[in-house]
Amino acid sequence: MKWSVQQLLSFKGRGLHIDETVDVSEIKEIDREIRGIAPVQVTGDAHFSSHAVTFKLEITGEMILPCARTLQDVTYPFAIAAAEIFQLDGKATFIEDDEVHELKDNTVDLLPYIKERILLEKPLRIFSDKNEASAPVSGTGWELNVKDKEEKAAIDPRLKELEKFFDNENNMT
């Protein structure tokens, strides 16, 4: 997933199609919540302009994250659509909103940007659908309270008199 500018320019006429499986297991050291990540499938195409190359990518895979309730492993599949633009020379002008990457050592390396997209895709919390490892409903000094959906919210007694006002107003119209 790394090309020099000369290699990329050789693909300019015929195009560049990407279909690779990439190992991004180093992400586990960056974000300790990610307990495991399978090799990621990256597919897409490179589109060339006179001064830049745009990679339109589809990144798919799955990672293992802890359940927010039980801390059990949960497999989280992801599919990310990404567009990365690299400036091939200093002559190009871009719209301010475009995130354009400059070349380092005259090479284009997509792997750091793929890792960044995966980290951005990771949810803040995830819940397991399995009931086998459910969270405890009580413990020493605490108990889980689950309110019924039909339970009506209690009206503050200080506001009880206002309820009569709204009933009278509805009767007048």
Helical residues, percent = 10-25%
Distance between the termini: 71 Å
| Biggest sheet statistics | 6 strands, mixed
Mean pLDDT, all residues: 81
Strand pairing plus helix content: what structural class? alpha+beta
Could you characterize what this model shows?
Pfam families: YceD (PF02620). InterPro entries: YceD (IPR003772). This is DUF177 domain-containing protein. With 173 residues, this protein is α+β, with helices and mostly antiparallel strands. It has 2 domains: 2-121, no CATH class; 138-172, no CATH class. 20% of the residues lie in helices and 35% in strands. It has 4 helices and 10 strands, in the order βαβαββββββαββα. Strands 2, 3, 4, 5, 6 and 7 form a 6-stranded mixed sheet that branches. β5 (52-66) and β6 form a beta hairpin. The longest helix has 13 residues, at 160-172. The N and C termini lie far apart (71 Å). The model has no long low-confidence stretch (mean pLDDT 81).
